[in-house]
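TICKET: design request
STATUS: open
ATTACHED STRUCTURE:
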């Protein structure tokens, strides 16, 4: 089936609402996307029409959205566009929803500090699929490679900048073999 996949850039217009139901985590927020253009005659930036989208996220993305986003944050949302049309009191109304696959801060407009989440439970049935956790048989504790200041894969107690033990990893960015991958 063909789906319309879009990437929308804008600001978080409402505080994300997070809940957990029988199918897992769900978070929703409104996204305001306003195009700007340069008006040569007036020599000023002009705002275009603001489009509002309801963004729906599920599973671990929902939990991370609820913990990371606030009203006014500039974000980039990638997902499937769904347009709903309904008639109320004789008037037809259309709403645009985005079923998000990825949400992140817009780094063209500011900085962000990424913190990797760790999986404390085994994957549940509603998390099965593309985003489900995969675990190698001999996984070291996640804290061994998420410790602040230590490169990923550094042995416990190693000072910051210590080699990871991965031979072709000069920057120390790869997790150790058998680490929990999400």
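STATUS: resolved
RESOLUTION: sequence designed for all positions
ATTACHED SEQUENCE:
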């Amino acid at each position: 089936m063909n789906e319309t996949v879009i990437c929308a850039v804008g600001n978080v217009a409402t505080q994300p609402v997070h809940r957990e139901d029988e199918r897992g985590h769900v978070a929703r927020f409104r996204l305001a996307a306003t195009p700007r253009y340069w008006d040569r005659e007036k020599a000023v930036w002009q705002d275009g029409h603001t489009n509002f989208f309801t963004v729906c996220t599920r599973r671990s993305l929902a939990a991370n959205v609820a913990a990371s986003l606030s009203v006014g944050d500039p974000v980039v949302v990638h997902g499937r566009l769904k347009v709903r049309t309904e008639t109320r009191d004789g008037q037809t109304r259309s709403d645009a929803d985005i079923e998000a696959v990825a949400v992140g801060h817009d780094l063209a407009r500011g900085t962000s500090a990424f913190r990797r989440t760790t999986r404390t439970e085994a994957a549940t049935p509603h998390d099965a699929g593309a985003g489900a956790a995969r675990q190698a048989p001999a996984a070291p504790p996640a804290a061994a490679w998420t410790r602040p200041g230590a490169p990923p894969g550094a042995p416990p107690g190693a000072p910051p900048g210590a080699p990871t033990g991965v031979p072709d990893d000069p920057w120390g960015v790869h997790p150790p073999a058998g680490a929990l991958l999400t």
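CLOSING REMARK: The chain has a mean pLDDT of 77. The CA atoms of residues 84 and 163 lie 53 Å apart.
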